[in-house]
Amino acid sequence: MSSSVLYDAPGPKARMRNRIYSVIGTAAIIGLAVVVVMRLADRGHFESEVWNTFNYSNVRETIRDGILTTLKVFALAGVLSLVLGVLLAVARASDHRPVRWLATGFIELFRAIPLLITIYALWVLFLTYKGDLGAIGENNGFWALVLGLAVYNGAVQAEVLRAGFNAVPRGQVEAAYALGLRKSQVMTMLLLPQAVRSMLPTIISQLVVTLKDTSLGYIITYSELLYAGRQLANTTLVNGQYIYVPVIMVVGTIYVAMCLALSALATWIEKRGRRTKTGIAVAAAAEPAEAPGVLDPAAVPAPAAAAGETGDAPLAAPAREAEGPKAAEGPKGPEGDTGEPRGDSDGPVGKSN
Amino acid sequence: MKFRKTAAAAAVVAALSLTATACGGEEGTAGDKPKDPTGGKNAPKLPTYDVKSGVKVDSAVLKKAQKAGKIVIGAKDDQPYLGFKDSAGKRSGFDIEIAKMVAADLGFKPDQIEFKTIDSGVRETTISKGDVDLYVGTYTINDERKKQVGFAGPYLVAGADLLVREDEKDITGPDSVKGKKVCSIVGSTPLQEIKKSKYGAETVELAKYSECVQQLINKEVDAVTTDDAILKGYAAQQPKALKVVGKPFTKEPYGIGMSKNDKALRDAVADAVEAHQKNGDYKKAYDATLGLSGSEFTEPPALERY
Amino acid sequence: MRIAVRTGAGAPCPTTAAHEDIPVNVLLDHLAEFREGFIGTVWLTVASSVLALLLGVVLAGFRVSPVPPLRFFGAAWVTLFRNTPLTLLFLTIWFAVPQVFDFGFDPWTKALIVLSVYTSSFVCEAVRSGINTVPLGQAEAARSIGMTFFQTLGSIVLPQAVRTVLPPLSSIFIALTKNSAIAGAFSVTELFGWQKVLSDQGFAIAWLFLWVALGYLVITFTISGLFRLLERSLEVAR
């Protein structure tokens, strides 16, 4: 049942050793946890007065409103960033030079500027034209945060999708043109669906980043979860201490839970997607999933794609660039792809079409 | 199957935190209850202000506010006894009182004031773009700021001072902080001052005063520096743990910020402050807020009109 | 450092215009602080990149290792730090960690630790997906000629993974550069804090942001340029 190719299935001795390591490791972690808890208790962070803070209805409401605000900002920013990402990625793969340049410029600019500055600049802009913007002007903080997140993450998602386009075997595109498909058809029926599927893990982890980055709203004093928590800690004094430690614990747990739920959703979608498709790679890939993170399914797609398999191959392809197929070929035939422009960052995808 | 478990757990935690925060709970304000130094008997009462009616000032900002039926005032929310918002959402402090008395003279009842928390870094932006009509929050008048906003005031002159632990003996003023760790807000004027090499202090810069105070309590830093008015508020919150050194080393005239070119409003606000200083409301408000921190009442500075 | 000087001096410098509101003057008048902030950002970015890279590779090794507790540790690390906002981690090391351990780190070290730990979880995932792209046959062949886990990983798999890992690493380090701005609120001298100091004195914030953004553009473009060079040189080496 060994799931990894990196080492042999453990024999009796190794199993024994692993068991001992496990015991030691577990003991160490538990020991550390005990020390942490005891030290914190020593300093009075587990006193009932301290935690009683969270029994007050207004404190609860503050936290609840924080969660809801964060989710609202994230939902809108997430959707907008995906839409923008698709638009930008398609524009960057365009045959028309000005369109391509515009998209490239947009992506490069907003990827390079710290999000804090983008959000702030948008906010100032919205404040300036408050009167003319209607709803946006009224809720300027909200929209500045949403659009700032959408612009930045849209630029990143566009790059992710572009890597996905690159991962689709060239033969497919050529075949599609040979069949008489138009450019738009190639894009919508061939490149986009495969790119989205192959890049899904990265797309989702970028969504997790989007969720976490809602906390940057502090720069415009927008009261999302973290800001609300900080405010609570800054103004609540219990037993002569500000309640930073409890607030960090509570808010941290909520953030991790929200992000994990999102990642789990992604994993679920990915697995579902894989199940419905017929793919030779799948059978082999299913096995390792049990062992956490050992040569995940992606190990399989690579050779499959190298062998010219269908586009399902790079399903769980590498994080960003999905150069899996090429890298896979590399070691076998060093001269194999010398003619290709490798770095995804150099040439626009459109070139190959 | 592993991920399902984490997924389920995560979803449960997320849902729990939502439901747990959704309903019920005790009423009131969380945290230590403020102690009354006078023992509760002669506790100074906050004054109430007579709201003027039919106020007519040739000011675009004010006309807009009158039409909307409310005035938006920017304030701080984390400075006890000065500009503070407790966990129940109630605002208190001297700056808040100043805002109320000015609003009253402009024709706004307390419930017609919409307070908005505005951090130091975005004051000029929010004021000059009209996001707030007035700003009252330890706002030092200086020339660079005057290029962007208008000021009425000063209504109070504060000065940079040092907050130390009650048992501190070494630090007696700005001249004795050599080699000590002094905490303040990123970019604040007292910080710029104490950074000068003649003081020889090691500085720590955080985003909020309360973060500095917590560092002081934790003995991670030896002193906190900022305007004495702010520090006295913290000392008053914990008189057994903290004290203010009491040797101000800068002058910080506090003003009420507003749109730059609205001279009519500037004059109206200055008039309002002056009137309340004369009729005694100003002193009453001081005694009931900053005065509680044990700092003496001093005669208000002369208003600067321009 | 040379870049810093060039940004300042290279900026259009209208000595004739003495008007105070000319945006360039804000920069020229506070060039020393700007340079200090710029160097601070570069230095913090470089130091935490190196540490994050080391940590990330080790963690990736953990995650594919034969020892279950190590795998668990790696997974827990990544889960925890990838799913927590950076600001919260900063608050933790400033307000919670000292309550437990009295290391007494200075602010810069705290920022270094937080940024490296946070970034290492991303590096770990990038390296791990890189490992996944190396054909199965390579590892199988290595093992069949008797290589140990460390040999297989160190001499066969990781070197081949490098090429695939470079592009995502470049984005990770660019993100790190921008994330270092958050350290400015926690007592570290860096580029974003320069703006804070001046805007508090009342300078128009739009221009301050323009200069700060340009500073970041210089750094991030340098990083992506360096990585492109690295990719190209690795290509030649093959």
UniProtKB/TrEMBL annotation, chain B:
Signal sequence, start to end: 1-22
Classification via InterPro entries: Bact_solute-bind_prot3 (IPR051455), SBP_3_CS (IPR018313), Solute-binding_3/MltF_N (IPR001638)
Record-stated family: Belongs to the bacterial solute-binding protein 3 family.
UniProt-annotated stretches for the region Disordered: 25-47
The protein's name: ABC transporter substrate-binding protein
Keywords: Signal, Transport
Lineage, opening ranks: Bacteria, Bacillati, Actinomycetota, Actinomycetes, Kitasatosporales
Domain Solute-binding protein family 3/N-terminal: 70-293
Record carries keyword Transport: yes
Keyword Signal: yes
